[in-house]
Design goal:
This protein has about 475 residues and is α/β, with parallel strands linked by helices. The protein contains 13 helices and 21 strands. The strands form five sheets. An eight-stranded mixed beta sheet has the order 9-10-12-11-15-19-16-17, with helices on both faces. Strand 3 and strand 4 form a beta hairpin. Helix 3 packs parallel to helix 4. It is elongated, with a radius of gyration of 23 Å. The model has no long low-confidence stretch (mean pLDDT about 95).
Length: about 475
């Protein structure tokens, strides 16, 4: 789809422009300042055989981020598709001197492909795509192949994560998720292993067994190995894979809990990250661990007041069965240490508290400073924003239980995201560096905008992949 050329045959030329540039005359056209604002889409239609011009806003130069390029590309592709134009040209000249051009090209390709994403699997009328060729008007003395390829690889991984998140629960049970993972990586150098039934009991994965015991669809622990350099320290990515969460016996009270099909958003991000990493050709030593279960009530379901005895010696009182994510993540964190991981990141749709504190634009991050700071810096480039919350020991007493070592919920109605992370810390071996990302508010969006399509976002896949790549450089 993407090629380096001036695109003489294109029916439209797309110009991403900054607010400041839009205030100056452009060729024979007088633009207006608002045409350069983020999200702005402005058409100038050509007469007869003349080419159309499409201006997409990047916002202010002072506040420029690569995320603005992705957003502009997503807005542009939908605008062009509405006009059913097969060949388009893109000029990124306004980005020169402001952005690293290789990164800008990658961001444009990624944003374009993600902006065109739709999940219409269950709709009678399927989306028809019309754009066949995107001509990038760039200096042909340089090779842009890697920059384009990286954008394509990232978009493919994120689209797969979105597909998984958007699947309704009756089409994505825990075992189905495992099958989709095995299908995705079949024939590659990614190895997939699944623990089920008696294997879970043998591994003492009591959190996963307990959460899943109320469902007719048994839980699965999915272990994904990708090792192209065994001399490097093992990095573990852990994802919460609750394929549907009713809250269990502690039933949710919302009118519509359809979005609980995306309670495996953390798992989707981890799987998408593995897909990006293996297609990027980097030398890594990586394991991804997905704790997949359905949390539903029946006569065999986990009950409030039950006690789970984890193999690291910590006993847990189940105060609320709707705080199930931390129980399955505990199993995965213990398993990461068994496999020899030296650094681990878990990603989960864990708490409403984090969403209340940070809103819908930032995920919360807590953990070891070295790991947290790396992710925080990378997020500024990937556009998947995080904000650090304190892993405050002062709140640890909130998890006190009268008859177990800890309870899975706080006794106090505050600091819910922090106490959830403090709970997880109980299952992180002291030899491992660790960070926890609570992305509950970012698992989906309600409306299509920029490069985000209504539904699952695939949030986190890009950042997790970049983290592993970054560590592979220094290990």
């Amino acid at each position: 789809m993407f090629q380096i050329s001036k695109g003489e045959a294109a029916q439209v030329v797309i110009y991403p422009v900054f607010h400041e540039a839009a205030e100056a005359p452009f060729q024979s056209i007088q633009l207006l300042g608002h045409m350069g604002e983020r999200g702005a889409v402005t058409w100038f239609y050509g007469r007869q055989s003349e080419r159309h011009l499409l201006f997409v806003g990047l916002g202010s130069r002072e506040k420029f981020e690569l995320e603005h390029v992705r957003e502009a590309a997503g807005n542009a592709v939908r605008a062009v598709e509405q006009h059913k134009l097969p060949i388009v040209a893109v000029s990124l000249e306004d980005c020169e001197g402001i952005a690293n051009m290789e990164q800008a090209v990658t961001a444009w390709v990624e944003g374009w492909l993600l902006g065109a994403y739709v999940f219409d699997k269950f709709k009678a009328e399927k989306t028809v795509r019309h754009v066949q060729t995107v001509c990038l008007d760039l200096n042909q003395q340089y090779s842009w192949k890697d920059a384009i390829s990286q954008g394509e690889v990232r978009a493919a991984g994120i689209k797969f994560a979105r597909d998984l998140g958007n699947e309704p629960a009756n089409h994505l049970r825990p075992r189905t998720l495992a099958d989709r993972v095995m299908e995705r990586f079949a024939g590659s150098d990614v190895q997939v292993k699944c623990y089920e039934g008696e294997q879970l009991a043998a591994q003492q994965m009591c959190g996963l067994v307990g959460v899943g015991q109320g469902s007719a669809n048994p839980p699965v622990m999915i272990e994904i190995r990708y090792c192209t350099d065994p001399s490097k320290e093992l990095i573990a990515l852990v994802g919460k894979g609750i394929t549907f969460d009713t809250g269990g016996i502690s039933l949710k009270r919302d009118n519509d809990i359809s979005d609980m099909r995306i309670d495996m958003g953390g798992a989707a991000a981890v799987i998408g990250a593995v897909d990006i990493i293996r297609n990027s050709g980097v030398k890594v030593n990586l394991v991804a661990i997905i704790a997949a279960a359905e949390n539903v009530p029946d006569g065999n379901a986990l009950l409030p007041g039950d006690v789970l005895q984890f193999p690291n010696g910590v006993s847990v009182q189940v105060g609320n069965t709707d705080s199930e994510g931390r129980l399955v993540l505990a199993d995965a964190l213990i398993h990461a240490h068994k496999l020899g991981a030296k650094e681990v990141i878990d990603m989960a749709t864990l708490t409403y508290s984090c969403a209340s504190a940070l809103g819908s634009k930032f995920a919360g991050i807590l953990g070891h400073e070295h790991t947290v700071s790396t992710i925080r810096n990378l997020s500024k480039v990937t556009g998947e924003k995080v904000w650090e919350l304190p892993l405050a020991d002062e709140y640890e007493g909130y998890l006190k239980s009268d008859y177990a070592d800890i309870c899975n919920i706080s006794r106090v109605g505050e600091a819910g995201a922090i106490t959830a992370a403090l709970f997880l810390r109980k299952f992180v071996h002291p030899s491992m560096k660790w960070a926890h990302i609570d992305m509950s508010a970012l698992k989906e969006v309600s409306a299509t905008n920029g490069y985000a399509a209504a539904g699952a976002t695939g949030y986190g896949a890009r950042t997790l992949a970049e983290f592993v790549v970054e560590r592979s450089k220094s290990a």
